[in-house]
Amino acid sequence: MRSSVKRVREAVEANDLDTAKDAYKMACRKLDQAAAKNVIHKNVASRTKSRLNAAIKKIAQAA
After folding, report:
1. For the chain, counts of helices (H) and of strands (E)
2. Phi then psi for 40, rounded to 5 degrees?
3. CA-to-CA distance for 51 and 57, rounded, in angstroms?
4. Full-model pTM
5. What phi and psi values does residue 39 have, to the nearest 5 degrees?
6. Residue 40's pLDDT is what?
7. What is the rounded CA–CA span in Å between residue 53 and residue 25?
8. Are 17 and 59 in contact (CB under 8 A)?
9. Fewer CB within 10 Å, N side or C side of the chain?
10. How far is CA 31 from the centre of its chain?
11. Residue 34 · residue 54 · CB < 8 Å
């Protein structure tokens, strides 16, 4: 889960939109699975997904 989130952040820092979007899909899946198994709270998963998506949108506008 953490490595998936890290991949998204690294892609955003590198301004690689396509890789960031693909990594975001995987990270969302991993976060949802972790929330379903009570590894993390569902609100933490939602907040993390929201922040990652905002970062992706920010580089998409800049591109």
Report:
1. 3, 0
2. -130, 160
3. 10
4. 0.94
5. -75, -40
6. 98
7. 10
8. yes
9. C
10. 9
11. no
